[in-house]
Sequence to fold (426 residues):
Amino acid sequence: AVFGEKMGWERALYFDPYHHREDPPAELPEGSFGKPDFFDHIEDEYLVCREGVGLIDMSSFAKFIVRGDKTSVVNYLQMLCSNDVNIPVGGIIPTGMQNEGGGYENDCLLIRRDTNSFFMVSPTQQQTRILEWMENHLPEDNSVGLQDVTSMYTVLSIAGPKSKDLMEELSGEDMTMHPFTYKEVNVGYASGVMVMAVTNTGEPGYSLYIPSEFALQIYDNLMKVGRDYGIRNVGHMAMRFLRIEKFIPFWAEELTSITTPNEVNRTFKVKFDKEYFIGKDALLKQKNEGVFKRLVQFHLEDFDKDEDIWPWGGEAVYRNGEFVGFVTSTAYGFTLHKMVALGFVQHPLTLGGEKTPVEAAWIADRTASWTIDIAGKMCPVTVHLHPPKMPIITQEGAAADYKPKKHYPNVQLLKKIKERESKSPN
Fold:
């Protein structure tokens, strides 16, 4: 593994399959303005998540238990969260926590484990920040309590269409689960493993929240059983490429305390018909008056990934020659076969001091010419308000129009072979 660091956590960025354990520790290559040296490794890890099964260590995510009496804990979270968190036990809800201006204080998942207990998962950088925010809003009667359990759970994310078959063989249970639900399973000698039908890659799969004392055993079993399914370790760089291609924003890059759900196309996570939540008035006002800044996705149309200088974030964006915004995140889209970027755009009049809403028609105007300035070279781009249409690969198989780029084991064939082996006399 080639490691990076986030909030004091050592995290695998990608894996070098040619590195030998007797070699010196693997390190990131020297920086490059163009195609990075680790590009091929990222592509392999990307494709295993799209077509096989990849294992990503997500343990650095901040994890909390929110517990209290039933009414108080629900009222507390409904006040903090912009989504409706009064979900059935066993359900998972993605939600933001907004400040009074409508900006993000948190972007998290809430898992309802009991009528009076929620498990919360937040971005790695939020471990101390969001705990303080939530403590400052606790009811004064001590009816709700918070507990930071980040180090108590190791998180292994199993992403890819073959994840279901792998988990069923490993656990001996039917792992058919609706998206955004969870259940507890026993894996070998490990009990109480929380399995959530959600990944952070946009691909089908599961996130396993494992009591840390069982983590190594379960990892070893996953890799051993997963060998038949083509499993391999995947780092955070591949996850980043998967997310950006699907137009999924990142905390601290697109989601910040001064950006709102209206601006980043995340109003589907906001329940405006709730009686109250922090930031509701600001979001409603912005919705009625117009949005003056919008997050969009750019596809670089005339770009040679092997020869051209890559965008890495911060590049200026122009519409018809006028500056209108900047790039926040970039990645190569291995399914789209294009360089992809996310960024915020504003109307030129707004930048000149005359606030003008950014309308969808203004962005989608086909007569407009959009470019990104990459090291002095104007690169033409197309601009998009919604995620791109991509071939769907589910745990039941790929769409008819999808042609796999790598050969991964046929799960049905594997099952038949194992059934025959179990029936044949030794």
